[in-house]
Amino acid sequence: MKKISSFLSITAIAGVLMCVSCTSGQDAGIVKSPFGTLPDGQAADLYTLRNEKGMTVKITNFGGTIVSWTAPDKNGNYEDITLGCDSLSGYLKGTPYFGSIIGRYGNRIAKGKFSLDGKEYTLATNNIGNHLHGGLKGFDKVLWTAAPANGSEPALKLRYTSPDGEEGYPGNLQVEVVYTLQQDNALKIEYSATTDKKTVCNLTNHAYFNLAGAGKGDILNHELALYADRFLPVDSTLIPTGELKPVAGSVFDFTRPVAIGAGINDTGDAQIVAGGGYDHCWILKNNGNTLKLAAVLSEPVSGRRMEVHTTEPAIQFYSGNFLDGTVVGKGNIPYKHRTGLCLETEHYPDSPNQPEFPTAVLNPGETYRSTTIYKF
Hints:
Order of helices and strands: HEEEEEHEEEEEEEEEEEEEEEHEEEEEEE
Radius of gyration: 20 Å
Strand order of the largest sheet: 11-12-13-14-27-23-22-17-20
Structural class: mainly beta
Number of strands: 27
Largest sheet: 9 strands, antiparallel
CATH architecture of the largest domain: Distorted Sandwich
Mean pLDDT: 93
Distance between the termini: 41 Å
CATH class of the largest domain: Mainly Beta
CATH topology of the largest domain: Beta-galactosidase, Chain A, domain 5
């Protein structure tokens, strides 16, 4: 722990010398500002990325979290379209992963157990008897080191070393995530990781979107297209059954744009009942590791439209079913039922326990790489 603290201190000093990479006022670039203090005394920072068109993305190195993200409506007016908190204290009280980096393993691992080469590993069970989003203290709850990245567009590089045994996972995992705000109003997220021991790795971001504006009603009139013709049915604890089920003829068919509210309350569908709405993984038609269009989300009143491109084989669509107003967000607005949705690019849930799924195993000498682009 002393080594980690020293490393963070050095990084903080280096942050003072970032002037060459920072700009002020309304210019394109990156501005660093204080964001609060953690219970252990470490300081968290907020980095504001701004492109030449005026889009801004604010990211804190606590959890690598997207705090806010402005996007233009059909009249060119920019508004925050992600759920989050006004200050660090809000995140410390606990949120449902608003805008954070998720790891080591995004989504669920059944009963918090998996085996590698005959050895069983036990993880925290923090969701209906299963392991979810990295455990009790996943990557969303740690302080990352951060610095502007080199390049012609505003970019922030975050790094974190997850020690061997953290949350029960094997291997020292060196993780790097780069957020780049591109000039075409796209946010590119590039993930990479290496390990010194065989492990599993599945990184994603858990941004909650409401294209009408954060805190402005529910997301039921949003229209969604998913470029996937199969999805993973789940059991009562939201673990995949192993079946890859065609979406055709069901409320899971988003192969063309469909209003999210059209089928979300269909209690005649056992999968809607199991998830309390949509909380499922769709298998992309092109599930190779090349960059491809995975989803298009639009909101008819504002006219905002967002494309999701990814190198991942699947995408989890979560319709904010567990938001219940207990979390108060930006502007002192409680986030109620289905006031935000997530589109999490990923490997399949519970892959470590389902060998027929694409592997999420990372070996020493290999580099985990993943890219996702959210484009407005």
